[in-house]
Amino acid sequence: MKCPHCRAKLKETKMTPWLLLLAVIIVPLLIYLGITIKSFLAGHFPVVEKVPTMIVFIAFCYPVYALYEAYNAVIIFNKGNLQLKKTQ
Questions:
Q1: Helix count (H) and strand count (E) of the chain?
Q2: pTM of this prediction?
Q3: 30 closest CA partner among 2, 69, 3, 1
Q4: What does each of the 88 residues of the chain score in pLDDT, given as a tens digit?
Q5: What HEC string does 1-29 produce?
């Protein structure tokens, strides 16, 4: 993860309970959303049944995932404990 201002590499040293709770709730919802969209598309385009669900998710649900990741980043920057990564 990089600082949005100075682009320095950061690492998080403290995981917030809200971030963990959000991940526990959102990840299954994203999986369900991918499966639902695949089944909807398979009803209209039978060839979609043979496409892996992950590819369907990336093609149709990536904006939702990107918003989720952006929200996680805001929580980490506001509530987390960030430190600079040591360069080797």
A1: 2, 2
A2: 0.58
A3: 69
A4: 666 677 777 766 666 677 778 778 888 988 898 899 999 999 999 988 898 988 888 888 888 888 877 877 777 777 666 666 665 5
A5: CECCCCCCEEEEEECCHHHHHHHHHHHHH
**3-state secondary structure at position 81:** strand
Calculate the alpha carbon distances from 78 to 18, 27, 40, 71, 81 in Å: 12, 21, 38, 11, 9
- The kind and range of the H/E element at 84 are strand 81-84
For residues 6-35, one letter each, b for 16 or more C-beta atoms within 10 angstroms of the residue's C-beta and e for the rest, the string is: eeeebeeeeeeeebeeeeeebeeeeeebbe
Q: How far is it, in rounded angstroms, from Cα 67 to Cα 5?
A: 20
